[in-house]
Amino acid sequence: HVTEDTPGLLHHVKFQSQNFESILMWDSGPTSPPDTVYSVEYKTYGQRQWLAKAGCQQTTRKSCNLTMETGNLTELYYARVTALSPGGRSATKMTDRFSPLYHTTIKPPDVTCVPKVRSIQMMVHPMPTPILGEDGHQLTLEKIFQDLFYRLELQVNRTYQMHLEGTQREYEFVGLTPDTEFIGVTTISVPTWSKESAPYVCRVRTLPDRTWT
Amino acid sequence: ELRTLRLGSCVITANLQAIRNVFSEIRDSVQARDENIDMRILRNTGSLQDTKPSDRCCLLRHLLRLYLDRVFKNYQTSDHHTLRIISNLANSFLTIKKDLGICHDHMTCHCGKEATEKYRQILHHFEELEPQAAVVKALGELNILLRWMEEM
């Protein structure tokens, strides 16, 4: 989308969003002087008014945090950046329509791997998002994505893995050999939105068996 | 992965994820053609999930008919890939509409005042626009309709 453009001042105006932390990013063009300044506006799709984002006016930075401004999951949004070069040249570019639900990607989960003698416990910690519920509390990913589940894999050796999956937060791989190293891999999956996080990986060793010593 | 849609006494299943994945192939290009971003056809005030359960089947049936009869058929493009995607979407919508028709035959797809009024408003927004602009906007808002259905 180009509203007005001096060629080469402004490129790639787009949202990058992880766990609903939504950052507007852009690039300067090949011909834009270093002291070019940028101003950001945003709007809700279907409404008339563009709103200036405080803190991102006449800035030399090339990113702007619009997390709070795009925090209503039933809405869709646009943002636009205006670049102004010292010589008075300007350009404005707009994002595609941004849907927080559709566009946000999922960060790797936060997992604690606890070795025992013949088992390994894996505890997934809740992931709060900046999205506020009707009660004003931060919503977790599980609350937002009703079909979110965890997929856990324990790599025993090159050819053998154990698998667990579910929506609960605590898992235990049992029947393991004491004093042996394993690799735990945990990912988050959201089928309805075809989302899958990058894996969280932990390398952990079961405890030695001191029963008979 | 089939999803169960509870529309009052009418309960159907639909593969919304597959429809969403198909639509995502043309989503950005279709939305980029929508130049009326000050206006929205499917508004939160008229959403399915804010409609009382007994009226949801009727409202959805009307919406599917709007898309089948006036959106998918009339979207003008020379891009064959887009046309194939639209045909795919139309077939998916037709399947859902057939299931709603069965509910209608079993008297579980009642059109109450709420459904009738909400559809009237949506149609009004649609017809406010120049015909092809309305078609482009409605197709670009398909993800809104899918999310409404997911919340059933």
UniProtKB/TrEMBL annotation, chain B:
<feature type="disulfide bond">
    <location>
        <begin position="58"/>
        <end position="111"/>
    </location>
</feature>
<dbReference type="InterPro" id="IPR020423">
    <property type="entry name" value="IL-10_CS"/>
</dbReference>
<feature type="disulfide bond">
    <location>
        <begin position="10"/>
        <end position="103"/>
    </location>
</feature>
<dbReference type="GO" id="GO:0005615">
    <property type="term" value="C:extracellular space"/>
</dbReference>
<keyword id="KW-1015">Disulfide bond</keyword>
<keyword id="KW-0202">Cytokine</keyword>
<protein>
    <recommendedName>
        <fullName>Interleukin family protein</fullName>
    </recommendedName>
</protein>
<dbReference type="InterPro" id="IPR020443">
    <property type="entry name" value="IL-10/19/20/24/26"/>
</dbReference>
<dbReference type="InterPro" id="IPR009079">
    <property type="entry name" value="4_helix_cytokine-like_core"/>
</dbReference>
<comment type="similarity">
    <text>Belongs to the IL-10 family.</text>
</comment>
<dbReference type="GO" id="GO:0045517">
    <property type="term" value="F:interleukin-20 receptor binding"/>
</dbReference>
<keyword id="KW-0732">Signal</keyword>
<dbReference type="GO" id="GO:0045518">
    <property type="term" value="F:interleukin-22 receptor binding"/>
</dbReference>
<dbReference type="InterPro" id="IPR020442">
    <property type="entry name" value="IL-20"/>
</dbReference>
<dbReference type="GO" id="GO:0030316">
    <property type="term" value="P:osteoclast differentiation"/>
</dbReference>
<feature type="disulfide bond">
    <location>
        <begin position="57"/>
        <end position="109"/>
    </location>
</feature>
<dbReference type="Pfam" id="PF00726">
    <property type="entry name" value="IL10"/>
</dbReference>
<dbReference type="GO" id="GO:0045672">
    <property type="term" value="P:positive regulation of osteoclast differentiation"/>
</dbReference>
<comment type="function">
    <text>Immune regulatory cytokine.</text>
</comment>
<dbReference type="GO" id="GO:0005125">
    <property type="term" value="F:cytokine activity"/>
</dbReference>
<keyword id="KW-0964">Secreted</keyword>
